[in-house]
Design a protein that fits this description.
single chain, mainly alpha, 14 helices
Length: about 350
């Protein structure tokens, strides 16, 4: 009976943790593109800097990681009684560290692809293309972690792909002022490549979670995000050094249309928002699945669309509306399928009454 109560309490806590991570992922996924677009619109031109900002905010994670460490220290008597070694603030073992170091470099590559795309595309167009990562996440999740497919999830994948195709066919009419058709196509291709790569990274992380030889806790998830971001930042730092971006930052700040102070505020806020997005994604994979994390990115699309139209006065053409509708259709289809599957599992778990 006590074990049943403890198990139920653990499930409730995990659901709360899932909800929190979903919220911070949506905040980061919506806010990141909007704020970095502000950088580009008002004079920012450093693509490698944009890539750098997507991972360099990881030091803020030391705060929750330290809090987690303090909590573990307070429960030290229980830890010692179980024969576990002394608490450490970093608990990740070397094999796991090396794996996530490689994934961090892949994330850095994904960030530079996305940053190049965002430099040439309107926010609303960019997020619609990025939303197709759900399709790629679904495919890679099926291959890597044997994700179960339903007619609803298949329908979601098809709708999202159709939405991206329709958007691509209308590319020439959606260019921003002064942008060539070649730049638009290049931005589209790079953003789509970023969606494919991120669609691979999410299931890969889930696979590592399952194959890891040490227990995955949320404290370890924080460490994982720090390692991912650290190596993603190293990747971007190399690019910035080659491109002389560090020397150019003070000069660019002086010529920023909104002022030098706002320039640095934009950089800091962007770094924080992208870190929230990354941590939320890792947390959702921990609490649920990589496909669920991909779903949250897709769910952020309509929110970012509306905010981009409101704040940046971007055009919302009819064809973009069709693409958005197809994306929403796919999103709703997936969650309806998940709802039906959950009901079925609950129904099957109820023991049948013994006929007398």
């Amino acid at each position: 009976m006590v074990e049943g109560v403890e198990a139920q309490k653990e499930r409730i806590m995990k659901r709360i943790l899932l909800l929190v991570n979903c919220i911070i992922q949506v905040i980061g996924t919506c806010g990141g593109p909007l704020v970095i677009r502000l950088y580009y619109i008002h004079g920012g031109k450093r693509v490698w800097l944009s890539c750098f900002l997507q991972t360099c905010g990881f030091p803020i994670l030391l705060v929750p990681l330290t809090i987690s460490y303090i909590i573990r220290r307070r429960n030290r008597e229980l830890v010692i009684s179980n024969g576990t070694s002394k608490d450490k603030i970093f608990t990740m073992k070397l094999p796991l560290f090396l794996v996530f170091a490689v994934i961090g470099v892949l994330q850095g590559l994904d960030n530079i692809l996305y940053s190049n795309g965002l430099a040439w595309l309107p926010v609303s167009t960019s997020v619609l293309i990025i939303s197709t990562q759900l399709a790629f996440t679904a495919v890679f999740a099926f291959v890597l972690v044997r994700q179960k497919f339903t007619p609803y999830s298949v329908n979601a994948v098809i709708m999202l792909i159709l939405g991206a195709v329709i958007l691509a066919l209308n590319g020439s009419g959606d260019r921003t002022a002064g942008e060539t058709k070649k730049q638009y196509v290049k931005g589209f291709v790079m953003t789509l490549a970023a969606a494919v790569l991120y669609g691979f990274i999410l299931p890969l992380v889930e696979l590592v979670y399952k194959k890891a030889k040490q227990p995955i806790t949320y404290s370890l998830v924080l460490e994982i995000q720090i390692v991912l971001s650290f190596f993603g930042t190293l990747f971007a730092t190399v690019g910035m050094l080659i491109n002389h971006d560090f020397k150019a930052i003070p000069i660019e700040a002086k010529h920023f249309k909104l002022g030098e102070t706002i320039y640095y505020v934009v950089l800091v806020v962007t770094a924080i928002l992208w870190q929230l997005s990354g941590l939320g994604a890792m947390g959702v994979i921990f609490c649920a699945s990589s496909l669920m994390s991909g779903i949250m990115i897709a769910m952020s699309t309509p929110i970012t669309e509306v905010l981009a139209v409101i704040f940046y006065k971007e055009k919302f053409q009819a064809v973009k509306g069709i693409s958005l509708a197809l994306s929403l259709w796919g999103f709703v289809s997936y969650f309806y399928g998940e709802f039906q599957e959950t009901r079925k599992i609950k129904k099957d778990s109820i023991p049948e009454t013994i006929q007398t």
